[in-house]
Structures are given as C-alpha cells and as structure tokens.
Design a protein that fits this description.
There is one protein chain. The chain is α+β, with helices and mostly antiparallel strands and 996 residues long. The protein contains 35 helices and 37 strands. 47% of the residues lie in helices and 20% in strands. The strands form eight sheets. Strands 25-37-36-35-26-33-34 form a seven-stranded mixed sheet, with helices on both faces. It has a six-stranded antiparallel sheet with strand order 17-16-18-24-19-22, with no helix packed on it.
C-alpha cells in the first residue's frame, strides 16, 4: 500500500483541484484521493510517477516533498553550491538548504536527488537510495494519541520533528492525534515525540503493529473512508481544519489587507485565509485556536474578534458601522468647520503670509487649533501610521499622516522662524491640514454608510429564520429560543409562522411558501412524511414535525454559509490589485520624495513652497482605498444578488470563469426534463402478459434508485400488483440491472445489456422506434433468456426549458445535450427543446471525456447536471452547475448551484457573472486611471502649461470621491436584473409578510 503526498503548483481554485481528483481517481491501483489547491494525498498500489504524469498532463505541476540530512557542508559557499545546483534543475520546483539539511519539492525522485548531492562532493547520511514506491511499501502506519499540545505552534513543532527525520515517509498531526507512516517501530516514534516534551501513546482503536492483520485492518478502514470522501467535495474540512470568520477593525486600504493576510498566514496551522476590505472580515481555514489568530492580527497593529455565527456578526458589524459612521461624521464636521473658514479666507483675498508679529500671533493661535484637530480628529491616522511603521510597512494612514503632518510642521516653522525663509516662502497651510482631514473623514463616513448596504441579500436570508420555536413536550406546547432546539424534538408550526429548522412532518397538511428559498412562486403542498426547510412559511394548516437538522446543518444555514464564503473569496482578477497594492504605498512615498527633490533643486522660487505643495499633494491623492475596494465590493454585491435569484456561487473565481463561458452542456434527465418519469406504454412477447411483466420488472427495480425505476415501481403500485422479493441484484451503470425474482433470471435495461446476454430483440424493434419517436426511453425486459416485453418510460420536458434555451441562444451560447439515453430518444427530446447538437449513448464515466473533447475545440464550458451522476463531467467542465433543490451533494460538489429547479437559473447565473465581472473591471479601471492620472498631476506635470499646482485640499477631496465612486458603482449591481423575456418564477427573493 502506497500513501503519497504530492505538493501541487499552479492549482488556483477548487475547480482545478476537482479536475486533478477526477484524473487521479481514474488511474488503476489508486484507492483514495484527496486533493486541495496545495497538495494531493493518494493511497493505493500504484507507481507515483504515473500520478505525477497524470497531473502534469492537465497543465499543473506535482512533485515529491524531500527532507534529507546533509553532511560535508562546512560554509555558506557549500550551501550556495547545493542551492544553485537545485535551482538550475527544472524538475526541482523549490528548495531550502542549510549546512545540515535539505528540503526540496519537485519531480526528481529521491535516488537521483541523492546522486546529485553526492556529485557535488557532499553526502546524505543514513539514507539509502530507494524508489519512492518501494520506500512507501516498506513503512508502517502508526496511529497515536497525543497529549500536551495546546496550540498550532505545538502541532508545528511535532511536524518539524517528523519532517527532519529521514525515516518518516508521511504524517498527519493534530492537537490530539498523529498518524505517522515510517520504517520506525511504534516505540521509536513515541520516543521521538517525547523529545519535544509532549506525550504519545497508541490510539485505542487505531493502533498499528507490524502484524499484517492489524495493518491491513487500518488500511481497509482508510480505504473505506476515502471511498466515502470521493462522494463529497474536496473543499470540506480535512484533518481538523475548520473555517472561522473574524470581524476586523483598523483596516483602511488594500495595503492593510495584505498586512492582515500575512499576519494570519504566519500562524502555524493556518491553511488559507481571505480578507475582505469591503466587509472588514477575515475567513480563515485552520486547525488552531482562534485566540492565536486574533493575537497575530493584533500584533500586526489591527483589531479582531471571532464571529460565532452570521446573526452575531451582522449585529456586531451593524453596531460597528453605526459607530464608525457617527464618529467620522462628527470628526468631519469639526474639521470642516475649522478648515472651511480658513480656506474661504485665502480664496477671497485674505493674507496667509507671515509678515509681522501680529501675523505670527494670529496664525500661531490657528496653528494650535489645527494641532488640536490633528491629535483628536486625525489621531487615528497618526496612531495607525506609527503602528505600520513599527511593522515596517506603509498604509493609507501613512500617506495622510505624512501629508497633513508635513503641511502643519512647515506652517508652524514659518510662524516660529519666518526670518529663516525668503518672503515668498512665508505662506502657511493650516487650512490644508484641516480640510484634508475633514474631506477624507467625510469620505470614510459616506463609504461606511454605502458599505452597510452591500450585504443586503445575505441579511435577507438571515431574516428568514425565526429566533424562536414551539416545542411539544408531553402534550404541552412552549416557545423556546431557537438555540434550545435539539435534533429529535417534536415542534409545532402554526399558520403564518416560519419554519425554524429542517425536519419531517408527523401530522397535518398545509401549503408551504418556499419562494424565498427556491424561487418557486407556487406554494408546495406538504403532508405527513414530507420535508420542511428552515425559513419557509406555513400558509394555512397546523403541522407537527420532528427536528432533524438544526443550527448550521439546515439548508438555509448552508446557503448562508456558502454565500458568506463566496463573498469573502477573491477572483483571479483581484490578484492584480493585491500584487500592486503590496508595493503601492512605498512606491508613492518614493515618488513623493523624488517629486520634492526635483521641485527643490530645479523648481522656481520659492522652491521650498513648491516642494511642500507637490509632495503633500502626491501623498494625499495617491491613497489606495479605491484599489482595495474595487473587487471585494463587486464580489460582495454580485454574489448577494445572485443568491436573491436562487444562484449559489461557491467562490469569486467561479464567478469570473462563468463570465467567459461560451458553451452550455446539459444533462437530460432531471435537467431538461422534470426528473419524474412515468410509464406511458408497454408491449409483451413470448407469452407474457402485462401483469407478469410489470410484476417481475417492478420487483427487480425495488433495489434501484434510478428515476426510471421509480416510474416502473409506481406503475405496478397503481395497478395494485404485489411485488416479490428479489435476489442477487446487480446494477451495471449505463446498461441496466439484473437479478432473480420468483426463481426467474430477470434482465432489465437497454439494448447494450440485451446484446451482452444475446437476447433477440427483433420482435420489439418497431415498438422501440415508436417509443423513441415519442421521446420515451425504451426499456427491455428479458426473463430466463427470452425477451418478455418492452416498457416505454417518458420523462416530460420541463415547461420552462424551451424558453430558457432560447434565452441561452440569444446570449450567443452554444447549447449541447449530453445524455446516456439512446440517440433516437435523445434527439426527440432535443427537438422539443430546440437543441441542435446532441451527444447520446454516453456512459456516466464517459461524460467527462466528452466534455474534454469539446474543451479541446477551444470552448469554455458550463456543465449543467444533478451534481451526483454527472460529478466527473461537472469537475471536468470549466464551471459545474448543479440543478435541484440544494441537496447536500449538489451544494458541496458544484461551483454554482441553482436552488430553484429551473433551467432559467443558468442564463441568470451567467448574466449575473458577466455583470459582476464587468463591474469589477470598471472599478479597477477607475482606480488605476485615477491614480495613474492623479499622481502626475499632483506632482506638477501640468505646471509648465497652466502655471498652477493642484491644491492638497482638492487632492483630499478627489481621494475621498474615488472611494465613494467605487462603492457606489459596486452597489449598482443591486439593481441588476437578468433579461425577463419568456421567463416566469425567477424573481429575486423577497421578504414576505407573515401573520402570527
């Protein structure tokens, strides 16, 4: 058994990870695969080279992770020699070398790596050159319980021990458990852990010994678990990794985002993080305690608190936004009240020069008033700038502090020592300091007010869930807080009330309004045995139901969580802004210094005044606020707007990819059609009658969950036929089923299955053609080697599919049907739907290759399916779109999920994606153009033509306006509506009125 961890490169999103997972799963000998954007973990009996080759063929990079001890390196030149040799090889992706050890990632096998080191005159002690797969086969896996590990740093300490030990092949460590694959015996591993002052003991139920049976049992358990994992998404928490959201404060620009992300990622045990400037939140995937992450953020100069749930986060952020808005508005009024009259004095001819003692006293008093402004209204700019300076970085606060501080210091110097300057340079700029503070603070206030509207969709979703529930205990009803509801409790739902949790109806019948969750305008009739979802509204009858999914497990909670994660994610386009913002503020400071020097040495007199004005103006106008808000604002509003239309977007990258889709591939059953097949015709042969045929067929189909099987069983129940037990049931995907019923060998399936068993189908030839022409699927039934009959099952096309396909074609999309049904039936359905391109007769495992063939033609594909049977094709496509009512697998497996079971969701999703991407580009373009044009103008490039410089006050107003413009443009997305031609039941969710 090989257990191999391959580091990955160029894997940018979970869509890429899913493609890799599908390719690796198809390799012979691989029993389980777990893939994320960082690594692939494989188990089975396979050659690692084959797995690496499969990944590289997809355009990604994978390699071994080598940790080797070194000997013979005596100085830095030796280290550099090894490092240069590794860096020169294309099959080594990255390396880290010291005098005693080497860490490298690449496709170079370990024996060849050792040969390379030895060829340089050095050695690798205690390591034998073995093929990687042979080395894995020689190891054992020890499962250990750990004690004494209290945080992520403790986990990292143990991981470092394993990384540095040459006999440890692979490991997984949490605070309570370690799984170690090594050639060492169990006692040696425990001793190794104890050297780090931690405790270890054999896990009670997972202890592995050298005995083959124990190791085999553990291997079987892992394989069983891995088999289950293949049914779910790779994005689910692994190895104790959970997702936590933090509410942040103190961030002002894109540079702050970069600083916070670096601080969080510096904590050992953090897998990934995404910081949203628009929402002032951080979404962190890790296996460490939240206080360590908060401590890291605070050490970086910001504040953070853990968001326990969406309701708490919303309430806390509302309070924060209101406090920030009130504080900024108050400060802005104070600063403008001081700066406004001073500015008016200068504009309308008042002297701002120091020419006498009286001027010194008057302006000195004004300088003290302005200083009071700087230490009160502008205090946070200087405090944050100092924090940034201590952490060796620069932010927007740095620019504002430098600009306003320089203007005040120069003005106060003029007041105190005017004789040291020529007469032309004795101008004061106290009004600039006051007005800049006022305008920037006013901009922040308006921005905070606009930001509070960006998550309106998410807030509406959270408002759907009531805060109380009525439980029934021993016949008595009492109202309790929602947090007190537990799984298995019996709840009462009165008319007009919202469903508090997911559950199953025990008694009663009523119509449930599910429009806010599914988009379907017609209330659903619910009775005993039916499922209720939290957030939906009971219209008439009183219901008694059992609570089955509560808290974060309800469908509504999962939808809210998905929207939240998507709003916190970053599209590929945002990486451009991130990379620029990381160096933007330092670059602006350099530009300001160079500008000051040029004006001082080459500018006209008074050069010191020109130097001050231009440098200050550059610092103020170049604020990167707009740049940092450009993409997160658009993503937050766009994802929320999509949720209102029943389109759940997994991440912002999927949003960007969906905007470039030019081809839509549709599954047939349950996508184009209702997904509720019914038996419409039947023919009998070789002496069988319809009763015998249906009895045998339905009895066999009891073991199948296929929609066609349901149609046959329902037809038998309608005719009140008694079903017999079946034995030796066997399903062959893409062919049919077989088994024994009442002592008869029964086959039920398509033409391929009959051909396998050499069944003569000539008697049913005309009936099969007739069924196919009607758009029905012909299903053959053979009993004891003879054709017994043909059943025609039809799945009617959805009433809105034709209109939705017309919308897609109008958008310029190519629409293709991909189905496993026979060509005649597929073409009949396609003709009804208005689809010209049909790919039929494809087995489930062949759909992915068909999608790949279309991609090789240069097409960008959105694959639409049910999220279960079409999983490989959904993973292969550029974008996977799951149809349905938000089931677990659908929500977890696709990049986009349509909660409403309607094909109109596809053009809705693609149009919203295009609109959001367009909005992002507009914001980025505006931010870039603003800074590209603003900085040269502020530096005085127009002075030779106009004879005037841009005022720092005007620069402050422009800077504030840029942020407000970006926020306002992003909020325009809230007004976006997909085209409504021939479309029904796809209005955005609204908050219905209820009567209690």
């Amino acid at each position: 058994m090989v257990e191999l961890t391959l580091p990955l490169r160029k894997v940018r999103c979970m869509n890429c990870a899913n493609k890799i997972k599908a390719a690796l799963t198809a390799l012979p000998g691989i029993e389980s695969v777990d893939v994320n954007t960082e690594q692939a973990i494989l188990q089975g009996t396979f050659a690692p080279e084959n797995a690496i080759a499969a990944i590289n063929q997809l355009g990604y990079e994978a390699g071994y992770q080598h940790h080797l001890p070194l000997a013979g390196l005596s100085c830095c030149k030796c280290v550099r020699k090894v490092k240069d040799a590794l860096d020169s090889r294309p099959d080594i992706f990255s390396s880290d070398v010291s005098k005693t050890e080497l860490s490298a990632v690449g496709t170079l096998p370990e024996p060849q790596l050792i040969e390379l080191i030895e060829s340089l005159g050095f050695s690798v002690p205690h390591t034998q050159a073995k093929e990687p797969d042979a080395e894995k086969l020689a190891t054992h896996t020890h499962e250990l319980s750990l004690t004494g590990l209290s945080c992520g740093k403790c986990v990292a300490k143990v991981e470092t021990l394993f990384k540095q030990h040459p006999d440890v092949a692979a490991f997984s460590v949490s605070k309570t458990h370690a799984s170690v694959q090594t050639a060492l015996d169990q006692a040696a591993v425990i001793s190794l852990i104890e050297t780090a002052d931690f405790g270890a003991s054999p896990a009670a139920d997972k202890t592995n010994t050298d005995e083959g049976s124990a190791e085999s049992a553990a291997t079987d358990n892992r394989s069983e678990k891995a088999s289950e994992d293949r049914q779910t998404t790779a994005g689910k928490p692994q190895d104790g990794i959970t997702s936590q959201q933090f509410i942040l404060s103190g961030m002002t620009c894109a540079s702050c985002v970069s600083s916070v992300e670096k601080a969080i990622l510096s904590v050992a045990g953090v897998a990934s993080t995404s910081v949203n400037l628009a929402e002032r939140t951080a979404l962190v995937s890790s296996n460490v305690d939240s206080h360590l992450i908060i401590q890291a953020i605070e050490d970086a100069g910001y504040q953070a608190e853990l968001s326990e749930d969406e309701l708490t986060r919303r309430q806390r952020q509302q309070v924060q936004n209101e406090q920030v808005y009130r504080q900024h508005i108050k400060n802005a009024y104070i600063a403008l009240a001081v700066g406004g009259p001073l500015m008016a004095w200068g504009v309308f001819g008042g002297s701002m020069m120091i020419t006498s003692k009286a001027d010194q006293l008057g302006w000195g008093a004004i300088g003290l008033v302005t200083l009071l402004l700087l230490v009160t209204v502008g205090k946070h700019f200087f405090v944050n700038a100092w924090k940034a300076f201590k952490h060796h970085r620069a932010t927007m606060d740095t620019l504002v502090a430098l600009g306003t501080g320089a203007a005040w210091l120069y003005s106060m110097f003029v007041v105190l020592a005017p004789d040291w300057l020529p007469m032309q340079a004795r101008h004061v700029y106290f009004e600039a300091s006051a007005m800049i503070l006022g305008l920037i603070t006013l901009g922040h206030a308006l921005e905070a007010r606009a930001r509070s509207r960006t998550s309106k969709a998410l807030e509406q979703l959270m408002d759907l869930q009531p805060q109380t529930a009525i439980i029934v205990d021993n016949g008595e009803e009492r109202e309790v807080p929602l947090a007190d509801v537990r799984t298995g409790m019996v709840l009462r739902l009165h008319p007009g009330a919202k469903v508090p949790v997911d559950g199953t109806i025990l008694e009663g019948q009523s119509y449930i309004d599910e429009s806010m969750l599914t988009g379907e305008p017609i209330p659903a009739n619910k009775k005993a045995g039916d499922t209720l979802h939290a957030g939906t509204i009971n219209q008439h009858g009183s219901l008694l139901f059992t609570a089955e999914k509560i808290g974060r497990d309800t469908m509504l909670a999962r939808i809210i969580d998905l929207v939240r994660q998507a709003q916190s994610s970053k599209p590929a386009l945002a990486r451009l802004a991130d990379s620029i913002s990381a160096i933007f503020v330092p670059a602006v400071m350099i530009i300001a210094i160079v500008t000051a020097m040029i004006w001082y040495y080459f500018g006209p007199e008074p050069s010191s005044v020109y130097m001050l004005v231009t440098a200050t103006t550059v610092l103020i106008i170049a604020c990167p606020c707009a740049l940092g808000l450009a993409t997160p604002m658009s993503v937050t509003v766009g994802v929320g707007r999509a949720a209102e239309y029943g389109v759940l977007i997994r991440n912002a990258e999927a949003l960007q990819i969906a905007a470039d889709v030019d081809t839509v591939v549709l599954d047939k059953t349950g996508t184009l059609t209702e997904g509720k097949p019914a038996l419409i015709d039947s023919d009998c042969y070789n002496g069988f009658n319809i009763g015998q045929l249906l009895t045998l067929a339905a009895s066999l189909e009891q073991g199948s969950e296929h929609p066609l099987a349901t149609a046959i069983v329902n037809a038998a129940k309608t005719d009140a036929l008694s079903l017999a037990p079946q034995q030796h049931f066997q399903a062959q995907p893409g062919f049919g089923i077989s088994g024994e019923v009442q002592g008869h060998s029964v086959l039920l399936g398509n033409q391929k299955l009959m051909a396998q068993h050499q069944i003569d189908l000539l008697p049913a030839q005309q009936a099969a053609v007739r069924a196919s022409e009607q758009g029905a699927t012909p299903i053959y039934v053979a009993v004891d080697g003879l054709l017994a009959g043909l059943l025609a099952v039809s799945d009617p096309i959805r009433h809105d599919s034709v209109a939705a396909i017309k919308r897609m074609k109008k958008m310029g999309l190519e629409v293709i049907m991909l189905t496993g049904d026979i060509p005649a039936t597929a073409n009949a359905i396609a003709k009804q739907a208005g689809i010209e391109h049909v790919i039929a007769g494809v087995l489930p495992d062949g759909k992915a290759s068909e999608v790949e063939k279309i991609q090789q033609q240069g097409k960008r594909i959105a694959m639409v399916g049910d999220g279960i049977n079409d999983a490989p094709a959904l993973a292969q496509a550029d974008i996977g779109i799951a149809m349905g009512s938000g089931s677990d697998v659908a929500i977890e497996s696709a990049q986009l999920t349509l909660v409403r079971h309607s094909l109109h969701g596809v053009p809705d999703a693609l149009q919203l994606s295009k609109a959001t991407l367009r909005n992002m580009k507009q914001n980025l373009f505006g931010a870039f153009v603003y800074n590209t044009l603003g900085i040269p103008v502020a530096a005085g490039i127009l002075f030779p033509f106009t004879g005037a410089l841009l005022s720092p006050v005007v620069a402050g107003a422009a800077m504030a306006l840029s942020s407000i413009t970006v926020v306002s443009n992003a909020n325009r997305l809230r007004l976006f509506k997909p085209d409504s031609e021939d479309r029904q039941g796809t209005q955005p969710h609204s908050q219905p009125k209820t009567e209690n």
